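PROTEIN DESIGN WORKSHEET
SECTION A - STRUCTURE
LENGTH: 288
TOKENS:
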């Protein structure tokens, strides 16, 4: 890392902790507001004052830096993330609106092709997610990043961000998009409420990854609520017991076990009871 000139460490600290008066005083007395970021001879690999201020949501500090001709569209050295990326990831709603009004690109990509919307949705920042979906971000709602091939919805489901999931689905997010490993959002779900939202939005419950469907995964984690949600979707909404029969007896690609066998081996009695009852009901339905 390049050596900081006098006062630059203090300026970065002021930006990090949202000390506006201190930052203004330091810049007024000659401290480089870029802290060597644009100096070819000593270009620092540390975060610039603007990036630190964006991380902390220090809007007044950002305003002061921009008045000092700091480059708004600069990115950090580690991830190629700009000020808007960091404000969205950290949940600074006011700072996000301010940066967008200044003209920052809502669809900008970092090194892993992650957008501000993805950060907001993955980290559960509902107000920011709603704000971004009201603009250009909505047109790229199904865009995939290079981080596991996740899009905004898959990441939000993985982290169980319920309110953001609702917003994304209402804005047209496709629940059947696949990540880099062939998994749709439903196979990232670990909560029955999330599974229901996805199924109601048109998620295909029989989709698999590595030979495992949603019933395999629910059996592994002892999640009878999700099992019941899937059963309800197939029997009452899709009205196709053959699909359910196929899923219940399907062997996964790792252990060669069905959902019932997994529940039995792991001693998950509630899941086992629901699945056995389902098998009896399906058998009775198909027999007639």
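SECTION B - SEQUENCE
RESIDUE ASSIGNMENT:
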């Amino acid at each position: 890392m390049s050596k900081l000139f006098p006062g630059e460490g203090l300026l970065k600290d002021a930006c990090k902790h949202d000390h506006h008066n201190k930052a203004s005083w330091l810049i007024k007395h000659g401290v480089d507001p870029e802290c060597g970021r644009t100096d070819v001879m000593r270009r620092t690999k540390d975060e610039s004052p603007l990036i630190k201020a964006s991380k902390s949501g220090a809007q007044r500090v950002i305003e002061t830096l921009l008045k000092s001709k700091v480059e708004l569209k600069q990115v950090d050295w580690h991830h190629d993330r700009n000020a808007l990326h960091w404000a969205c990831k950290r949940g600074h709603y006011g700072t996000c609106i301010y940066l967008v009004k200044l003209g920052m690109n809502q669809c900008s990509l970092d090194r892993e092709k992650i957008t501000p919307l993805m950060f907001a949705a993955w980290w559960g920042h509902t107000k920011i997610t709603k704000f971004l979906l009201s603009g250009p971000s909505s047109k790229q709602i199904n865009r995939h990043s290079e981080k596991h091939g996740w899009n905004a919805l898959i990441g939000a489901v993985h982290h169980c961000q319920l309110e953001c999931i609702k917003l994304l689905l209402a804005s047209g997010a496709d629940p059947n998009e696949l990540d880099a490993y062939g998994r749709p959002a439903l196979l990232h779900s670990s909560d029955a409420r999330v599974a229901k939202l996805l199924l109601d939005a048109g998620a295909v419950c029989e989709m698999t990854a590595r030979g495992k469907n949603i019933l395999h995964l629910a059996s592994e984690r002892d999640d009878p609520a999700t099992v019941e949600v899937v059963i309800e979707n197939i029997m009452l909404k899709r009205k196709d017991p053959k699909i359910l029969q196929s899923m219940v007896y399907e062997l996964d690609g790792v252990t060669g076990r069905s959902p019932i066998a997994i529940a039995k081996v792991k001693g998950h009695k509630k899941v086992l009871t629901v699945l056995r009852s389902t098998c009896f009901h399906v058998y009775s339905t198909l027999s007639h």
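SECTION C - NOTES
The mean pLDDT is 93.
The longest helix spans residues 269-287.
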